[in-house]
Amino acid sequence: MTTTETTTTATIYGRSLRTLYFVRFAFALIWVGIMFAISADATEPNALLTVLLVIYPLFDAAAVLWQLRADPDKQRSKAAEWINVVVSVAIAIALGIASSIAIPAALAVWGVWAIIVGVPQLIAAIRNRRNGGQVPQMLSGGISVFAGLGFLLQALQGNGMISGAAGYASLGAIFFLVSAIRLGAKLKKEQSA
Fold first, then answer.
1. Residues ≥6 apart with Cβ < 8 Å to 33
2. CA dihedral (87, 89, 90, 95) positive or negative
3. For the chain, N or C: smaller number of CB within 10 Å?
């Protein structure tokens, strides 16, 4: 592969990541708004809450699949991303069950998910740093682990509000927006060079 082909491939992948980050931002923003609206008074499980909790990790899995499909580097291991996909689908199922039992059960599952997917997100962001816009994703992965521990501890104590999941997702939305903007700036700079 020539230098020009490599640059073009990296630019195409960078554009795909930027689009993905904007889509993830928009989805999270809408999800957070709905989640805050219905979870403010939620002390008992309900069907809408269950649907919302299941949708978020399924969307996450789909977004990671989009990233995997767009990645031009067919040589490097994508184990971290595949772990993220599998775990997110399994967590969606677990959230469907847990959220129909009790709010703290759903919060515990959400916390476990945040921990488990935070690590691969951090790894993937470190690997993709050469494409730009990854520092916010590194921070997001690290914060995800700590937030997940907080959710898990709250749930194990039998308290905590499920609206915390919306706060967690809103922070993730901000990180995706910052990544998209930074990546866009990098792509614009490369085009003008």
1. none
2. positive
3. C
For residue range 12-48, what is the model confidence (pLDDT) as tens digits?
A: 888 999 999 999 999 999 999 999 999 877 778 889 9
Low-confidence ranges of the chain (pLDDT < 70): 1-7, 131-133, 193
Distance CA 102, CA 54 (A): 15
- In the chain, DSSP finds a helix count (H) and a strand count (E) of 6, 0
Alpha-carbon torsion (85, 89, 92, 98), positive or negative: negative
Can you give the pTM of this predicted structure? 0.84
List, as one string, the DSSP characters of 33-61: HHHHHHHTT--S--HHHHHHHHHHHHHHH
Q: For the chain, which residues make up each domain, given as ranges?
A: 3-192
Q: With 0-12 CB in 10 A as exposed, 13-18 as middle and 19+ as buried, what is 14?
A: buried
Q: What is the DSSP letter of 129?
A: G
Tokens 């995706």 found at: 176
Question: C-alpha angle with apex 57: 151 to 121, nearest 5 degrees?
Answer: 80
Q: Tokens 């978020």, residue?
A: 56
Contacts of 20 (CB under 8 A, 6+ apart): 63, 66, 67, 70
